[in-house]
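Service request form, structural biology core

Requester: graduate student, group of Dr. S.
Request type: structure prediction, single chain
Budget code: on file
Notes: please return the result as structure tokens.

Sequence provided:
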Amino acid sequence: MRKGEFKKILIIRLSSIGDIILTTPLIRLLRKQFPDAQIDYVTKSRFADLLRYNTRISNLFEFSEPGDFAILRATRQLIYEQHYNAIIDLHKNFRSLILSVRQNTQFTGRLRKQALRRAALVKLGWNRYSEIRPVMQRYIDVAAPLNIQDDGEGTELFIPKNIEAGFDDAHGSSFSKTASAIALAPGAGYFTKKWPVENYQQLALAIVKSGKKCFVLGGPDDTGLGQKVAAVSPQIVDLTGKLSLLESAAALKKMAHLVTNDTGLMHMAEAVKTPVTAIFGSTVRQLGFFPFLQESRVFENLALSCRPCTHVGRHSCPKGHFLCMKSIGPDEIIKYVLS
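Core staff response, request fulfilled:
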């Protein structure tokens, strides 16, 4: 297909933090392939800041929550009136299908969720994945018919200078990303994705004893964990629940390293080129959500036959032992992070 064929392109991904960040390579590639096109994006309002300052996007449409049928119908009508040549549905759920079907486009691409392979892995322990393919690559695959090819540059975030300056003003800009500040993200959406908080406490104490700065990051739901981690030393700075999405990204941009569970902040750190040490419990790489930077590393227990027990997370360990996380001790993480 020729570059001039597609003048108006719409991307749909409604949530969440990590998934939206993982769409940013595709946005960049579409802009490279169609430099004069109108490239628009639909996402939920609470995640819109992740894309608000992305200079590669022409228009950002915010899907208001709770997302009832009236809002869905109004958003669909808005899309219809734009007369898009191409719609790229990177969510493929009920709402995104309603928004994208029968829109008279030349091209409609939808994410292949590989539901059968995923179910075989989670429910039966059968690995039917021929390769471990990152989700951001799967997103790019959706637009392959538009002659889109990966450029290897990874994810990206656009942070206004005033937001970056705000972090410097609040916490000082004297430390260098190369060595002196490490962030911890002890939260996650599900219990089985959380490395035990006592391990994060030991790690945080070791960081400040080594002479480095230690920051704890997370959303409003993570404040209890943040307080527990920070309680072990007055030198630890607890920012859980205190920063917006882009303020969190600005903080991560200043860090030399992030130690995190399998969560959105893992992807956010890599988007600002901060390497991560990710600790995986109930989830595995085959599901597609794992770090890609060369300096990043995943710690996981590969010997457990019960992994993965879910593709998103659980509120308790179905086996009762939680060995996927408990078997990863703080000493090996401390040694790696501080080496």
